[in-house]
């Protein structure tokens, strides 16, 4: 009887010791999985290619002195804020893993505020852009830069396939596009992208030129 009780105690002991170990292993596996999925989504956001950045071709309609040189990868360009979502994050140059960990990434190759072209920003759906699904047509998006506050009005939303690169076409007028992976609550590598289109509402460079 004593031997039987001892064996039962040993089994209970090993079970109690094993449960925390299993939880630790499961937690590490989960962290690793989501870390890998975020890395894959970062690569997806960063791979879109558009025409090279050429500051000498900057806006015919706007101040041609805006952003005369290409900012270094990871350098802060300003702040993106959406008051209706109580959202505000730094915007940095680039959309690779290191940049997107710092905030919202400006897609290299797209123009910058005030240059009169297509400004494209990307961010993770579960960090900086997790509230983007609540954005509404008509909501203002403010890009605060060293040149002032550029305000864009939300005009349209679109859901596209992850491989769709048509969102990155150049434009001859100022517009801001936000991109993130979709669905927002999808577990794993999201198969689509959520796109926010806008129109320029306030340009501080034009205001200063007329003052």
UniProtKB/TrEMBL annotation:
<protein>
    <submittedName>
        <fullName>Class D sortase</fullName>
    </submittedName>
</protein>
<dbReference type="InterPro" id="IPR041999">
    <property type="entry name" value="Sortase_D_1"/>
</dbReference>
<keyword id="KW-0472">Membrane</keyword>
<feature type="active site" description="Proton donor/acceptor">
    <location>
        <position position="124"/>
    </location>
</feature>
<dbReference type="Pfam" id="PF04203">
    <property type="entry name" value="Sortase"/>
</dbReference>
<dbReference type="InterPro" id="IPR023365">
    <property type="entry name" value="Sortase_dom-sf"/>
</dbReference>
<keyword id="KW-0812">Transmembrane</keyword>
<dbReference type="InterPro" id="IPR005754">
    <property type="entry name" value="Sortase"/>
</dbReference>
<feature type="transmembrane region" description="Helical">
    <location>
        <begin position="12"/>
        <end position="36"/>
    </location>
</feature>
<feature type="active site" description="Acyl-thioester intermediate">
    <location>
        <position position="181"/>
    </location>
</feature>
<dbReference type="InterPro" id="IPR053525">
    <property type="entry name" value="Sortase_D"/>
</dbReference>
<dbReference type="GO" id="GO:0016787">
    <property type="term" value="F:hydrolase activity"/>
</dbReference>
<keyword id="KW-1133">Transmembrane helix</keyword>
<keyword id="KW-0378">Hydrolase</keyword>
């Amino acid at each position: 009887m004593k031997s039987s009780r001892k064996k039962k105690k040993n089994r209970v002991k090993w079970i109690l010791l094993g449960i925390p170990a299993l939880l630790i292993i499961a937690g590490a596996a989960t962290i690793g999985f989501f870390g890998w999925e975020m890395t894959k989504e970062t690569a997806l956001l960063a791979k879109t290619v558009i025409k090279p950045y050429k500051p000498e071709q900057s806006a015919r309609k706007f101040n041609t002195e805006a952003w005369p040189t290409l900012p270094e990868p990871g350098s802060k360009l300003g702040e993106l804020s959406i008051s209706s979502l109580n959202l505000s994050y730094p915007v940095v140059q680039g959309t690779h893993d290191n940049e997107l960990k710092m905030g919202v990434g400006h897609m290299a190759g797209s123009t910058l505020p005030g240059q009169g072209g297509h400004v494209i920003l990307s961010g993770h759906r579960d960090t900086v852009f997790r509230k983007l699904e609540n954005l509404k047509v008509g909501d203002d998006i403010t890009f605060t830069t060293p040149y002032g506050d550029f305000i864009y009005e939300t005009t349209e939303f679109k859901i596209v396939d992850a491989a769709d690169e048509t969102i990155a076409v150049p434009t001859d007028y100022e517009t801001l596009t936000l991109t993130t992976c979709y669905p927002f609550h999808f577990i794993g590598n999201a198969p689509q992208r959520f796109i926010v289109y806008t129109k320029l509402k306030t340009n501080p460079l034009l205001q200063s030129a007329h003052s």
